[in-house]
Amino acid sequence: MLKCCDPSVSSDSGNNFKNLSKLEPFTDYTCIGQIKENNVIIKNTTAIHVRVDCELKIENKEPTSTNTSIELSWTTTSLNCEKVLPELEKLSYDCRCHPDNWKHDQKSGQLTVNKQPRGGTCEVSGLTPFIDYTCSVQPTYNDQLVSQPTVVTKKTGVGVPDDVGTLKPSFPEHNVIKVTCHAVKHFFGPKTIHIANLTYGGVIQRSQNNSKKCEFEFKDLSYSTDYVVEVVAFNGHFSSKKVRSQTVNTLYNDKAVIIRLSIFFIICVVMVPVFYKIKIYMKKHRNSQ
To answer: Suppose 124 and one of 44, 97, 158, 243 were both cysteines; which one would form an S-S bond, judging by CB atoms 3.0 to 4.6 Å apart?
Structure first.
């Protein structure tokens, strides 16, 4: 008769011996043979180490993704435990995903799930949009890692860009409006475009794009006019929330004022001598009379 002892169970309990039919895979046992005569143990054989590794093989299927999650699916087979594989209730899987180029400001999702021994699916959520992730499915038995994980890569879907910062208008000239803001850091998509619309009375008058900076300049505008500037970030698929400036007013027509003053000055320069000559002529005329 062969009896095996589970080292993880205290020998004081008297329950640390198991029959061969009750042995579990991925577990270390110490086994001894007992020679009996008339149901009396007359000799124990030398203890031997026994461990059954099921050599699990996990085959990943093509993963699917949203912009914040990746769903993994797989099947599990075993060369030497195929018959008992469906009965392994302690067999589970650990699903993890992390960015290929790890940065501290990016999220790495991980989720441990229990699935059917033959395989299953798991969803890793809380991920960052439009990021390449490396995901793994790690088999575990009785909360212990067993076999090697399988690895697959997947990119999350396109998300909505971050909003632009507060708009800061300025006036390089009286009929010019310049608007700046902090460039968007995360576009979560293939393109990085800042779009500015200059509106008057709720109607778009002009539009500008800038892929590098959040900086726009609208020239040759109407003088002393109320405008509003709207800026969004666009990644080729989605736009961020519009950020509107307060009403920005172009200044008065300083060039026209300068021209009027110049004309008035010229008139003054020309007419003063004329008036002076007229005055002298009239004085002489009175004296002659």
So the answer is: 97
Q: What pLDDT is recorded for position 106? A: 43
Answer yes or no: pTM beyond 0.85: no
DSSP-assigned letter for residue 183:
P
CA-to-CA distance for 44 and 52, rounded, in angstroms?
23
Q: Rounded to an integer, what is the distance from CA 239 to the centroid of its chain?
A: 15
Helix (H, G, I), strand (E, B) or coil at 260: helix
Q: What is the pLDDT of residues 53-74, one digit of tens each?
A: 888 888 889 999 999 999 999 9
DSSP class of residue 185 equals S
By the 8 A CB rule, do 69 and 57 touch? no
Specify the CATH architecture of the domain 56-155.
Sandwich (2.60)
Q: Span 15-39, mean pLDDT?
A: 75
Q: Which residues of 201-220 are buried (b: 16+ CB within 10 A; e: fewer)?
A: eeeeebebeeeeebebebee
Domain at 168-249, CATH from 1.10.630.10, 1.10.3720.10, 3.40.50.720, 2.60.40.10: 2.60.40.10
- Residue 280, phi then psi, degrees to nearest 5: -65, -40
Assess contact for 26 and 8: CB atoms under 8 A. no
Delimit the CATH 2.60.40.10 region(s) of the chain. Answer: 56-155, 168-249
Q: Are 135 and 99 in contact (CB under 8 A)?
A: no
**CB contact at 8 A, 194 and 213:** yes
Bridge partners of 65, per DSSP, are 70
Tens of pLDDT, residues 161-190: 999 989 999 988 888 999 999 889 899 999
Q: Where does residue 10 fall: left (phi above 0), alpha (psi -120 to 50 degrees), or beta otherwise?
A: beta
Kindly report the number of other CB atoms within 10 A of residue 228's CB atom: 17
- Classify residue 190 by its DSSP letter: S
Give the C-alpha distances (Å, rounded to integers) separating 77 from 1, 23, 192. 32, 20, 45
